[in-house]
Amino acid sequence: MDNHAAPLVEMRDISIAFGGIRAVDGASIDLYPGEVVALLGHNGAGKSTLIKILSGAYKRDAGTILVNGEEASIANPRDAKKYGIETIYQTLALADNVDAAANLFLGREIMTPFGTLDDAAMEAKAREVMGRLNPRFQRFKEPVVKLSGGQRQSVAIARAILFDARILIMDEPTAALGPQETAQVSELVMQLKKEGIGIFLISHDIHDVFDLADRVCVMKNGRVVGTARTSDVTQDEVLGMIILGKCPPGAVPGPGAMTLAA
Amino acid sequence: MADTATGAAPDRARASEQGAVGRFLQATEIDTRMLGMVGALVLIWLGLHFLSGGLFLTPRNLWNLSVQSASIAVMATGMVLVIVTRNIDLSVGSILGFVGMIMGVLQVTILPQMAGIAQGSPALWILALLAGLGVSLLIGAFQGFLVAYLSIPAFIVTLGGLLVWRGAAWWVTSGQTVAPMNPTFRLIGGGPEGSIGAFWSWVVGLAACAAVAVLLANGRRQRRRFKFPQRPVWAEVFLGALACVLILGAVGVANSYPWPAAIVRRYAQANNLSVPDGGLFIAHGIAIPVLIAVAVGIVMTFLTNRTRFGRYVFAIGGNPEAAALAGINTRWVLLKIFALMGLLAGVAAAISTARLNAATNAQGTLDELLTIAAAVIGGTSLAGGAGTIAGAMLGALLMQSLQSGMVLLGIDTPLQNIVVGAVLVVAVWLDTLYRKRA
Ligand SMILES: Nc1ncnc2c1ncn2[C@@H]1O[C@H](COP(=O)(O)OP(=O)(O)O)[C@@H](O)[C@H]1O
Ligand SMILES: [Mg+2]
């Protein structure tokens, strides 16, 4: 990893408010190629909101986004995808009434030369990708609403890695998974990392991600408490950041760090 | 493709657990819901035939039924898309009335008298038709704009439209009925002249059978291309044969309904033919409005199943937020749906104005409810995300069967309304039960 080059993506001083609530308040975060950055914090800390700004789902009130060092204009999900930003949403965001292949290619369908949907080609590709992620998955003809939580999660993950993502956002990707499937996702993260993809891994549980991550970034009440290399801090110190907002010596404090009364 | 091979195994295992009927349905991939609807339609037809003392299942009545169903069937195909996206359009009956008025006034007064187009000129009916379709498209697009871009609920926008366009229909001629229509325009509405006759009906029927065969073969080729599990050959043959029997049967019925004697006499006189003693048998064949409805059904089915637009309509219906996050421009899709609905109301206006040979400001009153009922009875879920074009057209046929059956039985209008209302509620209740079980 070459930290002197421009980061793959950098979000600077991002803010957004819903009504009176400052869901994200002056947050900055960056990500380098082949790096896994864990975004941690309690439920309601603003993690999902921050990354939804990156994925184009929300419009920020303030702040800038840079991709490869250049300012990026991301106003909707289509813009984000153009920059190679793919997202696995916490809610999965699947169209429940159509099948797995239709979901994988939603918005980016394979067309025949006559300009009609090439369902057979899409299903074939879907079988290939799903076969890699979840070899036992066979229910290609059924609407995804009929699938189990884990199967739905695999569909959402497959959709994100299908189109050569350069920046992958995974918002609590293992929430619906059992231990075996969780291990599979960890393996996938390591493999994608090797391919040079930058990954934001979001979780409210530090144990899920500490071993996978190169760095952690902790949020509390919409603000960044601090950022640290996982080699420079202990799990207990990160827990202190999450719970108390206390920034340990090994971390770079952010605007949300607790200031000690002098 | 190792996984496709393993994919077939559990399918076969599941099939062996079912009875013969289950195996048959699985092999042919016939939709059980559709089967239930066809069953209901057959029951209603047999019941009405029995109650009317054998008057219902006659070529004459079935032919009339097909013509009467056409305009609602056309609008029901658009209503499917509207309801699939969790919206509603209450204005289609009023749009029909307003656009019918415009088509009528254009060809009867404005174009001949003000623009000076000669009565016999084909430009007359073509311009009137195109102008009407254009207006209906614009009305639909405007309502769609209000729904999609100004986020006004569709229920309110189209409830407003119901009043506005009905009022506008009155405004066109201050309430006066416009008649008669241009003779060529009238062909759109059916009647002896507005049918394609026995020969061309057989041609259409055979072409349709050929198309079915091509579609089945093509589907098989596609599955083979990617080594997906195939339907057994006997199932393909069965499906093809069934479709052909139904198509040719319908053509046969249309071809057994002769022109009335008076019209035959006039036709014979005009063409210097002599009418033999037993009378001359000239068959109606398929009515032009029915052909239009079938064509609309085919185009709409293609649109929903084979194009991006159709895929997005269903995705939006299933989860609007997910569709937007996938990068779909949901507002633009929504606007297009309402524009399409408007255009189809325009097509229905042409059919019903031509059939009545007049444009009245009350035309199409309550048609919005029949259209919605047809779509919903045809399996379109009011919760959004599910529905088929074929089902909605079948629903339109079912509604019209009930209505004309009751006319045949001499049942009073108020009681007719009570029956239709009750059928709608029961049908939706059955559908709810079906969806819970599925
Ligand atoms: N669409 C929204 N409308 C209003 N408030 C929202 C919306 N999305 C998030 N919030 C609020 O923003 C805060 C942060 O939420 P979120 O980003 O989902 O937290 P996290 O993902 O860290 O659990 C919460 O207080 C939440 O209620
Ligand atoms: Mg969250």
UniProtKB/TrEMBL annotation, chain A:
InterPro entries: AAA+_ATPase (IPR003593), ABC_carbohydrate_import_ATPase (IPR050107), ABC_transporter-like_ATP-bd (IPR003439), P-loop_NTPase (IPR027417). Transmembrane segments: none annotated. The keyword ATP-binding applies. SMART domains: AAA. Keywords: ATP-binding, Nucleotide-binding, Repeat, Sugar transport, Transport. One of its GO terms (molecular function) is ATP binding. Signal peptide: none annotated. Pfam families: ABC_tran (PF00005). Residues 9-246 form the ABC transporter domain. This is ATP-binding cassette domain-containing protein. It comes from Mesorhizobium liriopis.
From TrEMBL, chain B:
It is found in: Cell membrane. The keyword Nucleus does not apply. It is a multi-pass membrane protein. The chain crosses the membrane at residues 34-56, 62-83, 90-110, 122-139, 146-165, 199-217, 237-259, 279-302, 334-357, 369-394, 414-434. Part of the binding-protein-dependent transport system for D-xylose. Probably responsible for the translocation of the substrate across the membrane. CDD domains: TM_PBP1_transp_AraH_like. The keyword Kinase does not apply. InterPro entries: ABC_transp_permease. This is Xylose transport system permease protein XylH. Keywords: Cell inner membrane, Cell membrane, Membrane, Sugar transport, Transmembrane, Transmembrane helix, Transport.
